[in-house]
Amino acid sequence: MTESQTPVVLCFSGLDPSGGAGILADVEAISSQGALCAPIITAATVQDTQDVRSFSPLPPDLIIEQARAVLEDMPVSVIKLGMVGSTEIAEAIHSILIDYPSIKVVYDPVFSTEKDGALSTPGLVESARVLLLPLTTVLTPNIFEAHVLAPGSDTPSAAAVAILETDCQYVLLTGTHGKTQDVVHTLFCNHHECKRYSYERLPHKYHGSGCTLASSLAAMIAIEQEIEAAVHGALDYTHKTLVHGKRIGMGQYLSLIHISEPTRRRLESR
User: Fold this and answer.
1) 221, 106 in Cβ contact below 8 A?
2) C-alpha span between 243 and 240 (Å, rounded)
3) What b/e sequence results for 214-226 when a residue is b if at least 16 CB atoms lie within 10 Å of its CB, and e otherwise?
4) What are phi and psi of 231, to 5 degrees?
């Protein structure tokens, strides 16, 4: 990629009408890094800053057609997966990924909300484990999602290591839902813990922070950062968006865009 080229991230995500999560969070996070988000909507949701009420997956054939149209036209550097929604869509995305094995994949495994609002149909977890995890470069689960994907694991760390056994290359286990004084995120690779990242625990709950993290990570990988550097940069970026977050609705806070000075300089140099 030359300096004048804009890296492209292809995103499969749901549509959140509150604007805090899903594809809109993806577009904001990726754009703030100086990359282009090519959005593929997997499902329409009925939700606000408090919880999800319902969702409707889009037809898998339409999702495949949208993705292939972009992939055949633009130099996609990274594919980011968010809300998949159904087994049928997992199968559709799998059919795309196996045709583009050189493109790195960042997967934020969304199955439900913190309040157990459903964002997937029955059977999706197993389909994700079999069809998507083996093709994933970096998985970004919270501790609950890690246990869902690795049932029977005694600890979140054991779950992360078990997920690596599927041929997923990296697991970034997010610590927002942990009980530590600071928020501790842990990167796993090569079948063991590789690195920890600690951040001040903020006083509020935030809507869409997982989307922001995975998307900014995908963008940083797309601009040719090494995985560990991209992970650190994405965690820093996400934390800053939360620090500047606001409670716009009656529920969780929404993160606000933060453009770092290096990114600003890179954009201005084009």
Assistant:
1) yes
2) 5
3) bbbbbbbbbbebe
4) -60, -50
State pLDDT tens for residues 169-193: 999 999 876 677 788 999 999 999 9
* pTM assigned to the model: 0.89
Residues 97 and 84 sit within 8 Å (Cβ to Cβ): no
- Determine the 3-state secondary structure of 100 from DSSP: coil
Q: Encode pLDDT of 3-56 as tens digits.
A: 458 999 999 999 988 777 789 999 999 999 999 999 999 999 887 777 777 888
For the chain, which residues make up each domain, given as ranges?
8-268
Residue 56 — left, alpha, or beta (φ > 0 → left; ψ -120 to 50 → alpha)?
beta
Q: Give the integer Cα–Cα distance in Å for 26 and 210.
A: 10
The answer to whether residues 198 and 182 touch, using CB atoms and an 8 Å cutoff, is: yes
Number of H helices, E strands in the chain: 9, 11
Instruction: For residue 15, give the 3-state DSSP assignment.
Output: strand
User: Are the C-beta atoms of residues 100 and 37 closer than 8 Å to each other?
Assistant: no
* Superfamily of domain 8-268 in the CATH hierarchy: Ribokinase (3.40.1190.20)
- Beta-bridge partner residues of 187: 172, 195
Are the C-beta atoms of residues 93 and 84 closer than 8 Å to each other? Answer: yes
49 near 250, Cβ under 8 Å?
A: yes
DSSP tag of 200: P
